[in-house]
């Protein structure tokens, strides 16, 4: 009788492992990560200042959250570095931290817009700035393939799409979009009313004065009548 080779059990184990691995289902691919807006802008180039403001104001994180939690998509209007260079010197530094957040949010529309959808857009368009109240709107005018944005301060032209995937659209604009409310002079506060002078405690009111005067006159009149009657009585008594 022939004896089996000591390696035979190992060979069987190898064959079994190979067959088991072949029958196991392949691992599902990992879901795609959220769209990285700053990476899109970095790849396109000429958006260094806008990227820095997106990161410093944390608006980049807001964009990521909105894309993950909303089905309406977003549209970003990205000003170029030359657009920021064309601003009046000191403009950005004159804004508060809150205004810088609002400025960047003002460049974001809370809906996806394809180039053709700008043609049918209804003004004013709500932006991410000001929340649902829509206190930072802008107007869009589309003529043919030309799309213009008006804020009341800035007139900008929308350029080519840098990126679009059906949920996020990023367009280049040739001007920094400045909100009108940043430059409106607030209405002056009403002047405080002067306090009325308190009446003196020892001074009688107008009605009291008139009443007192009337009473005094009546007393004087009564005394005169009494004196006249007394004189008449004395005269009559003299003749009796």
Automatic annotation (TrEMBL):
Extent of the signal sequence: 1-22
Pfam families, alphabetized: Fasciclin
UniProt name for this protein: Fasciclin-like arabinogalactan protein 12
Topology within the bilayer: Lipid-anchor; GPI-anchor
Chain intervals for the UniProt region annotation (Disordered): 189-214
GO cellular component: plasma membrane; side of membrane
Gene Ontology annotations of biological process type: plant-type secondary cell wall biogenesis
